[in-house]
Amino acid sequence: MSGSDTLNRALxxxxxxxxxxxxxxxxxxxxxxxxxxxSGREFIDxxxxxxxxxxxxxxxALVKALNEQGNKLWHLSNVMTNEPALQLAKTLVDxxxxxxxxxxxxxxxxxxxxxxxxxRYALEHHGEExxxxxxxxxxFHGRTFFTVSVGGQPAYSDGFGPKPGGIDHLAYNDIExxxxxxxxxxxxxxxxxxxxxxxxxxxxxxxxxxxxxxxDQHNALLIFDEVQTGVGRTxxxxxxxxxxxxxxxLTTAKALGGGFPIAAxxxxxxxxxxxxxxxxxxxxxxxxxxxxxANAVLDVVNTDAVLNGVAQREAQLRAGLEAxxxxxxxxxxxxxxxxxxxxVLNEQYKGKAxxxxxxxxxxxxxxxxAGANVVRFTPSLVIPEADLAEGLARFERAVAKVVNG
Length: 405
What we know:
It is found in: Cytoplasm. The protein is built from 14 helices and 17 strands. By secondary structure, it is an alpha/beta fold.
């Protein structure tokens, strides 16, 4: 294969900033839920690019949309709008609680926009003393300085100088602590309906219901970060639909483009009014190429066939992991919703999630971790039953390797 001799893992260390430590294998081709590396070795993909490749690799509908739009129009600027962006915004508005949409390129950017909007809205409607943002420990909202400060993992935000102020954190699902913290000074509450990077921790339905109620009482905006849970991942288009409540602002990215970078912030007309002309922007946000692909993603994902299929695949994945655990006794629980699943390591294997990931790669399976104690699985929403079964068989061999040293 041309270039593969020189384009290797060693080159990474010579030319890339060292903030990542990628695997030795370099994938060059993908189809459906399978990926091939430079030497032609095949892997089953239970990682999905971290919940991004919601329709697997090179899905025909997405390839078609990309090719068609690629021959028409790639980029204008926000001095003009474009047809794919208008169509995507209309679909999102028609499919959710939202009335207005803002496009960006990544989850962090959508969250940055959400936080800026919340602060702006509070300032316009209630005055500058209403500035508190409440978020949760182990939460993750991106890597810009504002979003990483709102995220509840100090390891990611420490070491860059003074942080933005007015941000308070408390334990996820702690309703008593939340009641004590929220006040009329609170401008926004930001949370993931299922904490992703924090270990695949679902919210209690009652907790969310009371958070929504308290936000209303104190005129605080509720922001749902659905970057990882959105676009069918939990078996609904967006996870908030499971809980019978709606946020004021929702952010979506990752799976929205099925692998093409795009993000969106969704909100109501009343809240959106605070982002007046000139208050925020994005050079590439809403570009025709990204929006055309996202339109194709939603055409496929937002259907009963795919959304109902998520629950069936969840059942197969869960049963497979429980069967592996019955043999090897490595997990204390399997948690999550839909195809956002976490296998939590028990006391004996605490801190060893990466060992399971490395062993999986050796067995031809791509999976993820969520912290040191959770093995994370976010396969394609349309992964064939046979690929799911084969992936589980490979994972079982990986678990056996770790257990047997």
